[in-house]
Amino acid sequence: MTEKIKVCHREELELDTRKVISVESGKEIGVFNVGGEYYAVENACPHRGGPVCNGQIQKEIRAEWRGPGNRIEETISSIPTIACPWHGWEFKLETGEHIGDSQIYVKTYEVVVEDDNVYVIC
């Protein structure tokens, strides 16, 4: 059964900010406004349970090895990521997928805005 939980009024979650909420199940969920897009992830890193939602938000760095004698070509994508402050494990905010290992992820949640209120769907 899904539940719609009110996080805050839209104005309280300003551009490029976050809010961590506790839900009845005892979990914490971080809700983010990154560049005007809303994301929500569980605040528990799968590595050691660290508070991943307190980490640094940045754009994903992609790298391609061009072969012997060539430098690795790096680009910065538009995909927002968050890095756990304990050990640096990094995850895509939209999907929860770990950067570098698609078998590891943090749980993500849908975020909706209705009547100027931000909700997370659990």
Describe the structure.
The protein is mainly β. It has a single domain, classed as 3-layer Sandwich (Rieske Iron-sulfur Protein), CATH 2.102.10. 0% of the residues lie in helices and 55% in strands. The protein contains no helices and eleven strands. The protein has strands at residues 4-9, 17-22, 28-34, 37-42, 56-64, 73-83, 90-92, 97-98, 101-105, 108-114, 117-121. The strands form three sheets. It has a six-stranded antiparallel beta sheet, with no helix packed on it. Strands 5-6-7 form a three-stranded antiparallel beta sheet, with no helix packed on it. Strands 8-9 form a two-stranded antiparallel ribbon. It is elongated and about 55 Å long. The mean pLDDT is 92.
Count of distinct strands? 11
Strand order of the largest sheet: 1-11-10-4-3-2
Distance between the termini: 8 Å
Alpha-beta content class: mainly beta
CATH top level is Mainly Beta
- What assembly state would you assign to the polypeptide chains in this entry? single chain
Reconstruct the topology from this structure.
Blueprint: E1 4-9, E2 17-22, E3 28-34, E4 37-42, E5 56-64, E6 73-83, E7 90-92, E8 97-98, E9 101-105, E10 108-114, E11 117-121
Q: Outline of this structure?
A:
With 122 residues, the chain is mainly β. It has strands spanning 4-9, 17-22, 28-34, 37-42, 56-64, 73-83, 90-92, 97-98, 101-105, 108-114, 117-121.
Which descriptors apply to this entry?
single chain; 122 residues; mainly beta; Rieske Iron-sulfur Protein; elongated
